[in-house]
Amino acid sequence: MENHIVPFVYLLYVLALSVFLGFALISRVPPLLHTPLMSEANAISGITIVGALIAAGSMDANSPLTIFLGVTSVAMATFNVVGGYMVTERMLKMFKSKASHAPEQKKG
Amino acid sequence: MNHISYINIVYIVSCVLFATGLKFLGSPETARRGNQLSALGMLLAVLATLSAHEIISFQWILIGGIIGSGLGAFVATRAAMTQMPEMVALLHGFGGLASVFVDWSAYYNEFVHFDIMRIPAGNHAVMIPAIYLSILIGGITFTGSLVAWGKLSERLPGKPMLFTGQREINMAAMAAVLLLAIPFFMHPANNLVFLAILALSLILGVLVVIPIGGADMPVVISVLNSYSGLVACTTGFVINNVLLIVVGALVGANGIILSYIMCKAMNRSLNNVLFGAFAPAKKKSTATAKGEVKPITPQDAFLILEAARSVVITPGYGLAVAQAQHAVRELGELLEKNGADVKYAIHPVAGRMPGHMNVLLAEANVPYDQLVEMEHVNPLMDTVDVAIVIGANDTVNPAAIHDKSSPVYGMPIVETFKAKTVFVIKRSMASGFAGIENELFYYDNTRMIFGDAKDVVQKLVAEFKSK
């Protein structure tokens, strides 16, 4: 953001700790949920939307090229965010334990 | 505090929500709440960014946002669970290209478009290498994912595509893109060099994925997943945004872990999966399996199943192809009603992406407590009465344990051969992805039920019902 530049070294600090956090969190996800994990990762990688919004909405979007880049990047990043979260939700809804299955089977 | 600090505080909340979301994915009970928290984090990040003073017009954002969310919602609600690998590949590709375009627009405004007076967006010594890496990784992610998507959706042939001189062409393209870093770092304002790097990266993405076969797609998808994280990360360095770096690192770590798990489950190195098609073909095992194949009818198989007290079903990608998951669940339920303990043994590389089988069976209403990982089911295999192999082949081949000359040697398998009886449901005696014969089919305790997986399972179900 304008005249508020985070020094490179601090960015590296954040990177190093985030990689560590990522390994710690993701190695605990059971193989059972690896497909939803991947689609969730898709959804959060849509965080590029933060950059896309600035590209499409700031005064930088003033030539045909920058407008094209801005609009398409917003569209694709939103595709990732919306598609990713919705499909993850859809999948996770399907995972039911035996206990939660029982009432359903009675009517069948 | 100024407005930027407020925005950054919201970004921190978003990061915490993303991390919590991933933590909650550690158990199926909390996973949904995790996904919702993560989505809330994303919403907050978007709202905070929209409030930034730099954003002066909303029309382009609105247009892009409407197109993106419309398409995203459409694809997410329509995609069948068997198509999940394709959908994920497509998401990787779009994520990669979105980042490339963000970098491109940052690059254009900072280095090419001189006519407006503006404050530099960042430190050029950081921006230039970051732009270079973003374009390279993002370009490869985009076209590589499109090729993977084509292969998974069978719009492109699933077999490795090879041509003479392919290795040399790949090397040359790689070398060219690396060499272009020099003029780019020296004269970043040269638009032509930038475009050449972008074009070569796009070509490289195609070149690296076409020689990889369909069965290795779980690895390719995982690798592309980590690339899509890396490119978000480098984009964070380009536009000086901490949130992108954190999330990019989380996604990158995810891809690396999944690639590692997939490679381990195939007992191959990442190098071998990605570049294996170029290596001279391994000498195939010459040992022909001994014994004879003993076919059995579904009627006779039913008599054995009826007496079974414990049954382990081992599915493979063939189950998805035959769309047999619902029939299998019905069979599992009937077996349970009959007093048998039923489990599903899931090999990590069964299917076309990590966890694919679990999602298919969950969709068919199999409770997740019955979906058991290979490592947990193998120690109990001696006590199992009947193991049913449906649409799996290499992942149950005992040669992986003892035949050092076999190409699958060393790969962990679901040890179905230890069960008292093994049923293998298979169309014909054709070999699996590895192109080798499966000696399991010739074992004394193995009975082959020939036919389409869905047909056979439905026949077994019918036998149970007419009992």
What does this structure look like?
The complex is a heterodimer of chains A (108) and B (467). With 108 residues, chain A is an all-alpha fold. In chain A, 75% of the residues lie in helices and 0% in strands. Chain A has 5 helices and no strands. In chain A, α2 (34-45) runs antiparallel to α4. The mean pLDDT of chain A is 88. In chain B, β4, α17 (399-402) and β5 form a beta-alpha-beta unit. The N and C termini of chain B lie far apart (76 Å). In chain B, α6 (166-179) runs antiparallel to α8 (191-209), α9 runs antiparallel to α10 (242-266) and α14 (325-337) packs parallel to α18 (453-465). Chain B is globular. Chain B has 467 residues and is of the alpha/beta class. A 6-stranded parallel beta sheet of chain B has the order 3-2-1-4-5-6. Chain B folds into 2 domains: 96-278, no CATH class; 298-465, 3-Layer(aba) Sandwich (Rossmann fold), CATH 3.40.50.1220. Chain B contains 18 helices and 6 strands. Chains A and B meet through α1, α2, α3, α4 and α5 of A and α1, α2, α3, α4 and α9 of B.
> Per the principal axes of the C-alpha atoms, what is the gross shape of chain A?
flat
Q: Low-confidence spans of chain B: pLDDT under 50, at least 5 residues? A: 282-286
Structural class of chain A: mainly alpha
Strand order of the largest sheet of chain B: 3-2-1-4-5-6
Summary keywords:
heterodimer; A: 108 residues; mainly alpha; 5 helices; B: 467 residues; alpha/beta; Rossmann fold; 2 domains; six-stranded parallel beta sheet; 18 helices; 58% helix; globular
Q: How is the secondary structure organized here?
A:
The complex is a heterodimer of chains A (108) and B (467).
Chain A: H1 8-26, H2 34-45, H3 49-57, H4 64-94, H5 98-107
Chain B: H1 3-24, H2 31-50, H3 59-78, H4 84-112, H5 124-152, H6 166-179, H7 181-186, H8 191-209, H9 217-238, H10 242-266, H11 270-275, H12 298-307, E1 310-315, H13 317-321, H14 325-337, E2 341-346, H15 356-363, E3 371-373, H16 374-377, E4 386-390, H17 399-402, E5 421-426, E6 446-450, H18 453-465
Parallel strand pairs in B: 1-2, 1-4, 2-3, 4-5, 5-6
Helix pairs in contact in B: 1-2, 1-10, 4-5, 4-9, 5-8, 5-9, 6-8, 9-10, 12-18, 14-18
